[in-house]
């Protein structure tokens, strides 16, 4: 067993040491990626602290602005967006940033430019802020093709080009879940130390789960395969037990539970919104990346989610992700529908 593996089994592994251990597996690495991750971690700690103090600091409430998706922005959305933009640009390792809260991609000024592109949802689940329910941050990292001339084409790549992805959940504890390409690891923030400590190493999603997670309020608009799948969850005909329904309404929290307990999370397209609600670059891709790295699947109703190539930075897509076998069932229902058509 090498030194890093031994250390991870015997003592506390901070996220910093974990990332440096990963870096040491790539002798050619110059540390840029580790520095970028450390700035993302800093952003997460900052937002976590703001979320914890939100009620006290009277941060809760509308900022009186509307974002480009036509949704009301909360003060915490604005704050989190500012925090991540500052943390990422000051890392000196990014060249393009795409945030849910900004209509246009942000091109980092040349003096601070690096090789990485970060796509992010600074505050996910914002409808849950006012009632103190778990919310989060989602991010994905790409590398630019030509550092001297970063263009939007570098951003509009398929999810297969993603190098790393993760989310931070601001819940009963603050947890950062990260994959840098091999395996998925979860770190819990010890608030007294201000350090993320490895608590969930090499997360694997159960092959099949007992929970489905969807906004059933949209059921009247669903297409045939989605409706059939949810019906199967509730009234299985093969003698298996019905699945339980859990739906927080924060993607980070719903996906986190799905990752740890197994099951499926669905935000389908429907008659009202054929492309669903969730955004490809900074919601669908990072979560699909993590699911696959943990042994699960992510499907759009038509194709493997990571094979999508967005045309615009805020494109949306239906998404079905989670345990391998559960997503397989959804895929079979969509394939049967296509066969009938
Ligand atoms: O309220 P709905 O329609 O079920 O939507 C819930 C979904 O919307 C989201 O809140 C959208 O994310 P934002 O809060 O970042 O806009 C997801 O977190 C969640 O999965
Ligand atoms: Mg979101
Ligand atoms: Mg958001």
UniProtKB/TrEMBL annotation:
It is an enzyme of class 3 (hydrolase). GO terms for biological process: fructose 1,6-bisphosphate metabolic process; fructose 6-phosphate metabolic process; fructose metabolic process; gluconeogenesis; sucrose biosynthetic process. It is found in: Cytoplasm. One of its GO terms (molecular function) is fructose 1,6-bisphosphate 1-phosphatase activity. Keywords: Carbohydrate metabolism, Cytoplasm, Hydrolase, Magnesium, Metal-binding. The keyword Metal-binding applies. PROSITE patterns: FBPASE. Pfam families: FBPase, FBPase_C. One of its GO terms (cellular component) is cytosol. Residues 13-200 form the Fructose-1-6-bisphosphatase class I N-terminal domain. Its EC number is 3.1.3.11. It catalyses: beta-D-fructose 1,6-bisphosphate + H2O = beta-D-fructose 6-phosphate + phosphate. Residues 205-334 form the Fructose-1-6-bisphosphatase class 1 C-terminal domain. Belongs to the FBPase class 1 family. This is Fructose-1,6-bisphosphatase, cytosolic.
């Amino acid at each position: 067993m090498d030194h890093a593996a031994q250390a991870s089994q015997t003592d506390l592994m901070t996220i910093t040491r974990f990332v440096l251990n990963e870096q040491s597996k790539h002798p050619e690495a110059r540390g840029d990626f580790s520095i970028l991750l450390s700035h993302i971690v800093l952003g997460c700690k900052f937002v976590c602290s703001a979320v914890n103090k939100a009620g006290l600091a009277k941060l809760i409430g509308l900022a009186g602005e509307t974002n480009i998706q036509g949704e009301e922005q909360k003060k915490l959305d604005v704050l989190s967006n500012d925090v991540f933009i500052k943390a990422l640009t000051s890392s000196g390792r990014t060249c393009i940033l795409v945030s849910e809260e900004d209509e246009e991609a942000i091109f980092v000024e040349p003096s601070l430019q690096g090789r990485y592109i970060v796509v992010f949802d600074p505050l996910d689940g914002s409808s849950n802020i006012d009632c103190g329910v778990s919310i989060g941050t989602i991010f994905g990292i790409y590398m630019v093709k030509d550092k001297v001339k970063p263009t939007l084409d570098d951003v509009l790549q398929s999810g297969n080009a993603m190098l790393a992805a993760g989310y931070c959940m601001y819940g009963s504890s603050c947890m950062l879940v990260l994959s840098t390409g091999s395996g998925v690891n979860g770190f819990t923030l010890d608030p007294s130390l201000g350090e993320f400590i490895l608590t969930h190493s090499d997360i694997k999603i159960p092959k099949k789960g007992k929970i489905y997670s969807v906004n059933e309020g949209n059921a009247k608009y669903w297409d045939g395969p989605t409706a059939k799948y949810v019906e199967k969850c509730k009234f299985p005909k093969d003698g298996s037990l019905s699945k339980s329904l859990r739906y927080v309404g924060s993607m980070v929290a719903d996906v986190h539970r799905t990752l740890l307990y197994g099951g499926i999370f669905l935000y389908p397209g429907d008659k009202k919104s054929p492309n669903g609600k969730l955004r490809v670059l900074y919601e669908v891709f990072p979560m699909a990346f993590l699911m696959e790295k943990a042994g699960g699947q992510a499907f759009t109703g038509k194709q493997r989610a990571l094979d999508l190539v967005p045309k615009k930075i805020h494109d949306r897509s239906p998404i079905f992700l989670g345990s391998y076998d559960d997503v397989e069932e959804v895929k079979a229902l969509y394939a049967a529908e296509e066969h009938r058509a």
